[in-house]
Amino acid sequence: MSLSQVTAAARRSAALPLTLAVRAVDVDGEGAVGVDDDVVLPVASASKLLLLAEVSRRLDSGELPPGRIVEILDEDRADGTGLLRRMSRDGWSVEDLAWLTASVSDNTATNALLRMVGRESTARLAQRLGLGRLVLHDKVRDVRGPDVPPVFATGTARDLARLVTHAARGTMVSPAASTRLLGWMRANTDHGLVPALVDHDPYAPGFPDPLPGRLLVANKTGTDTGVRADAGVVVGARRLAYAVVAHWDTALGPGAERAAVHAMRDVGRTLAACAGRSAP
User: At what angle do helices 48-61 and 175-186 cross, to 10 degrees?
Assistant: First the structure.
């Protein structure tokens, strides 16, 4: 099956009241396709991949010791996704915080890591990797007033997919940093968007090596008002990096959200069919 089928799946959403940006890349080949993949959109927590990439880079370079204990400050605490704000300890290692950010999109862990490395360093890494439109504008906040950026992060499907492609190819700064990021992504517990209709075992051993006749997935999702985003890699006979971002006017009601989720899952089903077969 050709990657062109992925763009066909994306374009099936054209009549829906939403923007669906899609990018798919053959990690081991030259093929790549996209629909509206250069449109800058809010990408919610999918952008935490950039923060995790910077943390992984620093662990690889030795700038950060993995066992360094980071104290959770009151300014770090945020509601929404995560477990840390419900736990009694105030100090966690850098790797603990990374696992929490990757697996359950922990907002408090995210803020602690972001305070430690700084948004400026994530911007420098984005430029280094050619992700000029993937930007963390602020920390995660429970309430966004007029004096702070209106959204946590913005980006394009192209840049999100490019970051995942770097990790899958081992070119995200170094092979070790790339492998670490993929391992964190593998721990993500939210497979309800693009991977929802992909026949895969999220706990199967051996990642990133493919299993005969089986698919593996590693991803990071994002959810916010009027936004659903998902970036990851599907591993089968082929390795396909992807990013899908849906954005809609919330005034349209819950039907628009359901349409967005169904459209993302349709793209995922097509990605799975492509990944399960050798490249033409």
Answer: 140
Span 185-224, pLDDT tens digits: 999 999 999 999 999 988 888 787 777 778 999 999 999 9
Q: Which residues contact 54 (CB under 8 A, 6 or more apart)?
A: 117, 121, 122, 125
- Topology of domain 4-275, CATH: Beta-lactamase (3.40.710)
Distance CA 29, CA 90 (A): 46
Q: CA–CA separation, 222 vs 245, rounded Å?
A: 9
pLDDT in tens, 58-70: 999 999 998 899 9
Which pair of tokens denotes residue 78?
Answer: 């945020």
pTM comes to 0.96
